[in-house]
UniProtKB/TrEMBL annotation, chain A:
PROSITE patterns, per database record: PROKAR_LIPOPROTEIN
InterPro entries given in the database record: Spore_GerAB (IPR004761)
One CC-aspect GO term: membrane
GO biological process: spore germination
Descriptive protein name: Spore germination protein KB
Keyword Transit peptide: no
Bilayer-spanning residue ranges: 12-32, 38-58, 79-99, 119-134, 146-163, 183-204, 216-233, 272-293, 305-325, 337-356
Entry keywords, A to Z: Germination, Membrane, Transmembrane, Transmembrane helix, Transport
Compartments where found: Membrane
Highest taxon of source: Bacteria
TrEMBL record, chain B:
Record has ATP-binding as a keyword: no
Species classification: Bacteria, Bacillati, Bacillota, Clostridia, Eubacteriales
Record has Transmembrane as a keyword: no
Family affiliation: Belongs to the GerABKC lipoprotein family.
Record's protein name: Spore germination protein KC
Length: 369, 390
């Protein structure tokens, strides 16, 4: 499926990875509920752990240059088992797209327009995402570059405006919680923002400079991690004890900005920025799902699949959970294990199998490439 | 054929976007809004119920620049009152009497009546934390008496009492006899197990025969009930410790004459210490800078020795204010300074065992106060207006 026309530069990949991680700032309430005021430690530790885990993806890319993870599964495990694994990946990207879209629905519904029916919000949102995916992956990656800079500017601006409300004392008691809490929060932060860049393994075939994939991923992750850390630090230092009580800490924090009674009500900046960032994330996930389907079933072009899958996403994201409480429970308790299966266990076995394969000399086979 | 199909699709998509992306579902026109400027909560005669007063702006009553004489005697505000059990329910009940649904995003102040304050405010305020229209940086006040009366008082300088009160709160920084407490600061303390908080008090007083609002002193809340009051000096003692001093005047007596010093800035560092025997000590270090404002008498206070004497007298005065408030809070047993939180930050493991007995520990707490002051500028004259002694 190497569409020779579309090429992504490694810089675009780098920025897009950073932007993808930035989009998770809406989800900090998952981390807040578990880690409380020490969430920032969890972020730093998870960053280190994720760097190790992402090496798996980079190694797989190096062993099979120019292939996406679906194609790699097929190459490593053979046509039948590979396709089964690919179906797992398809489901994973699809479910992530659904969960993120429902997050957008929840966010807009809860804070901005309470009476608007979710269908209207989600329809508009997915409409734009599907349009972007149909345009092609190059378009999406270019957006990533732009949005990363936008994300940094918005966060930087808010940090400056909130500086007088920050009290760094709130960060203080460190290492005062039971160890299991740290383990749990590091688990959550590693899996949910950082390792979801598995979606970018679908983009690998389009990258122009295959050797630089590793470097792009690492630097992109670092950029995203810096953003996440700054956001978490800012939220904790402004909100202090209420950090765990608030539904969306990053949003609540922007409502407190009041400079000279003139610069107030800045939350609209935040709302717009979050919408744009999640649009990017869902576009990438949608693209990953669509391309995975196309590659698994050997369909020539993925463009015709975009609309049906997008419609399915809208339908299911109307109500993936029974209630908001279940959504919170899912995020803190179940999602880390659910996603870990797809993000860590499957690529790990693929990597082991690939390494074993590369050690056995090929005996007269034409190769399954 | 294909071109026409494309054009039709294009138009359809454009129409879909126009309709869908403008967010009209939740729109409210400006003339259906009743913009609330201030809310008052009182305890109704039936102890379970709350009386809510909402002050709504009447734009017709606000005099423009042209109407000089004030021919229209309309007031610029109207107060709606309702009684009920749940805050959200009461606020919706206002639609029975008000032609417009209340709109809270411009709310300036929250006033709580004294009776309600004494019986607990946490449950009444839950709605304000949760609702997405209510803002977090709203001034909070406790009214001595009822909140309804405070909101009914027609202001002298302004037109809407709530805005007047909000501006009054902003002006308090100049004397620092009252804290300006925001709603979100109150929620910080409500969430903590040991912290107590203060809310400024407002009362209706007499000034030259007219009724005016007087804001001074504060009310001390423990958990969420009002337990006592602090007068002006005690409140300022608290503000020295929590670093909320804006400006203010300190009066001291040196060499038989009195001097007045204007506070420019102040900083307090709280250091908790747990001794080897488990005793808890809190060290406060206050650094303050002030300007020389005025003096009485003919003794020139601007000599090197006198300036030093003034700095010591000033430090003594600050120490006195802090000791006054420490004593008051020991009798009330309310940790309004955040000493518990400071201990938690520095000694998280010992704090776990201390937290449950914080009430007793706080009563016996040993507080060491160290004050360092400096007098900066001296004014335009360097001797008092007396004939010079030959």
């Amino acid at each position: 499926m190497n569409n020779g026309k579309e090429q992504i530069l490694s810089a675009q990949l780098m920025f897009s990875v950073g932007c993808f991680i930035q989009s998770s700032t809406l989800l900090t309430s998952f981390i807040a509920d578990v880690a409380g005021n020490e969430a920032w430690i969890a972020v730093i530790a998870s960053y280190g752990l994720s760097m190790l885990l992402v090496r798996m993806y980079v190694k797989l890319a190096k062993l099979y240059p120019g292939k996406s993870i679906v194609q790699i599964s097929e190459a490593v495990f053979g046509p039948v088992l590979g396709k089964i694994l690919s179906c797992f990946y398809i489901w994973f990207f699809f479910s992530l797209a659904i969960l993120n879209t429902s997050d957008v629905g929840f966010f807009v519904n809860n804070f901005i327009m309470p009476e608007t029916p979710k269908m209207a919000i989600l329809l508009m949102f997915i409409f734009v995402c599907a349009w972007a995916v149909r345009r092609g992956v190059e378009t999406i990656m270019r957006y990533g570059q732009l949005f990363l800079i936008m994300g940094f500017s918005v966060v930087g601006l808010f940090c400056i405006l909130l500086f007088k409300d920050m009290s760094f004392d709130n960060l203080m008691p460190v290492f005062a919680m039971p160890v299991m809490k740290y383990v749990q929060s590091i688990h959550i932060v590693t899996i949910i923002p950082f390792c979801e860049i598995l979606a970018f393994t679908m983009v690998f075939p389009y990258v122009k400079d295959q050797e630089k994939i590793g470097r792009s991923l690492y630097i992109g992750m670092t950029l995203g991690a810096i953003h996440l850390l700054v956001v978490v630090l800012r939220d904790i230092s402004v909100l202090g004890p209420v950090y765990t009580h608030v539904t969306a800490p990053s949003f609540q924090v922007t409502r407190l900005i009041n400079i000279g009674n003139v610069i107030t009500r800045m939350e609209f900046f935040y709302e717009v920025a979050v919408n744009i960032l999640i649009f990017f994330k869902v576009s990438v996930l949608l693209f990953a799902a669509v391309l995975a389907v196309a590659q698994t079933f050997h369909i020539k072009s993925y463009r015709s699949l975009v609309i049906p899958i997008a419609v399915l996403v809208i339908c299911i994201s109307m109500a993936p959970f029974i209630s908001a409480a279940e959504s919170g429970f899912w995020g803190s308790n179940i999602a880390p294990f659910y996603s870990a299966f797809f993000e860590i266990i499957l690529p790990f076995f693929t990597l082991i199998a690939a390494l074993i394969r590369s050690m056995i000399p090929e005996e007269g086979e034409a190769g399954l490439k | 054929m294909k071109n026409r199909f494309r054009r039709i699709t294009g138009v359809a998509v454009a129409a879909l976007i126009l309709v869908g992306l403008t967010g009209c579902w939740n729109s409210r026109e400006l003339n259906t809004l009743a913009i609330v400027m201030g809310i008052g909560f009182d305890q109704a005669n039936d102890l379970e119920e709350v009386e809510i007063t909402a002050q709504v702006v009447k734009t017709k009553g606000i005099k423009g620049g042209k109407n000089g004489g004030g021919s229209s005697q309309e007031e610029a505000f109207i107060n709606f009152t309702e009684i009920g059990t749940g805050s959200f329910d009461i606020i919706r009940e206002f639609t029975h009497v008000s032609s417009r649904k209340l709109y809270f995003t411009h709310n300036q102040i929250i006033v709580i009546g004294e009776n309600l304050a004494r019986s607990g405010i946490r449950n009444t305020l839950d709605m304000l934390s949760r609702n997405h229209e209510a803002r977090m940086n709203v001034y909070m006040l406790v009214a001595k008496g009822s909140a309804k009366d405070v909101l009914n008082l027609k202001p002298e300088l302004g037109e809407v009492p709530a805005m007047e009160i909000a501006q009054l709160m902003e002006a308090q920084k100049n004397t620092s006899h009252t804290p300006d407490t925001f709603f979100y600061e109150v929620t910080f303390s409500l969430v903590s197990k040991t912290a107590a908080f203060v809310i400024p008090t407002v009362e209706i007083g007499d000034s030259a025969g007219r009724k005016v609002l007087i804001v001074s002193g504060s009310a001390v809340f423990k958990t969420d009930k009002m337990v006592g009051e602090l007068n002006e000096k005690e409140t300022r003692g608290l503000l020295w410790v929590t670093d909320d001093i804006g400006s203010g005047i300190i009066e001291i007596a040196v060499q038989g004459v009195t001097a007045e010093l204007e506070i420019i800035r102040s900083n307090c560092k709280i250091t908790p210490e747990i001794g080897a025997d488990g005793s808890v000590k809190i060290k406060l270090k206050i650094t303050e800078e002030s300007d020389f404002g005025s003096q009485t008498g003919s003794v020139n206070l601007l000599t090197m020795e006198n300036i030093q004497r003034m700095e010591e007298a000033q430090a003594q005065e600050i120490r006195k204010e802090i000791e006054m408030v420490l004593e008051k809070t020991r009798t009330l047993n309310a940790d309004i300074f955040g000493f518990g939180e400071a201990l938690h930050r520095k000694y998280p493991h010992q704090w776990e065992s201390m937290e449950a007995e914080w009430n007793e520990i706080f009563k016996a707490l040993d507080v060491e106060i160290e004050v360092e002051t400096k007098i900066n500028s001296i004014g335009r004259i360097d001797q008092p207006n007396y004939p010079s002694k030959e």
